[in-house]
Amino acid sequence: MRGILGTAQRGNRRRGGYSLMELTVSTAAASMLVAGIGSTIYVASRAVGDGDGERAPVVAGSMTIEQLASDLQYAVNFTERSATAVEFTVADRNGDAASETIRYEWSGAPGEPVTRTFNGGDPQTVAGNVHDFDLDYRVQTVTQITESAGGSTESAEMLLASFTGWSGVTPTEAYRPLTSTSWVTEYFEPTWPVDADQLNITRVRVMLAKSADPGDLSVGIHAASGGTGPAPETTPIGTVQTVSGAGLTSTYEWQEITFSDVALTNASSGYNIVLKGVGSGARVRYYLGATAPADSTVYLYTSSSGSSWAPSASVQARYDVPFYVYGTYTSSTPTETTTERYFIRSIGIGLQVGSDADGRIESGSEVLNAPEVAGP
Hints:
Distance between the termini: 96 Å
Number of helices: 3
Radius of gyration: 49 Å
Structural class: alpha+beta
Helix content: 10-25%
Number of strands: 21
Strand content: over 45%
């Protein structure tokens, strides 16, 4: 038992101490470490701490550029840009939920400092004895072309619709008297040019003659009932024109009625010329063709002031009023606008601390938000 205990005690004594050789090696390693740290501190103090050191201007310039580049990288808006001064905003940095304003500036006089101002406070020197400082803003130009409706262009007058007879059919000429209750209408579908926004009816021609007791008559343009007609809607489009019965002859002649405010805007609708008598009125020519083919024009008449119209749909193809409708069309003229927008993508930075031109440092900063500015 004593032998075993004695062995354990001797083992404990060995783990609690160091041999002479271990102490010697440890002391030597510690001495080398202290010497290395001392050398590092000495070199650093010579490069940075000594304001007159050979590398001190370069180190100071590098630190200034690093700070400036770091600030510029997160700029979201520029309020001033020049070669020697820049003012910009960055996102909130102090927790007040407001953006921060940062300004760097050099007076341009050799030996003057570059200063940094934060949120309008006192300028702080970030590099002294500066002999050159310049900023180069790399601006990207983006050209945008946009189109707007612009103004309208009116065409020359053209024939919009007409009927003068059926091909291969010799019509029978007949007439219908126009009175205050006896009216005539001709349904037509005008030609719409591809780029037309609106048709403007300028004149209509129909064949009229005076009655035994001549009176005036009115001529108006109406939209077709339900857009498909052939009966007209009640309300006219634009101003209804009056034709003097006294100026008509006893024989049928083409009479021209002009309009100035009849604008058709629905390209999918048909329209009607509506002729009404005032008093005894006049007479209007129409054609009858027993073998006439169906077409896009339809003649109707009423003896009840428009409450009902004849003839029936089964025979409507046999009747038509000879007519011409003239007009112009308006179309939108697109206006193309070219806009140039400018975005700062990066900024070149040049800085020389001290009078030695070889100490000039050139670097740059990418501007991550690419803020838009007013010009290049």
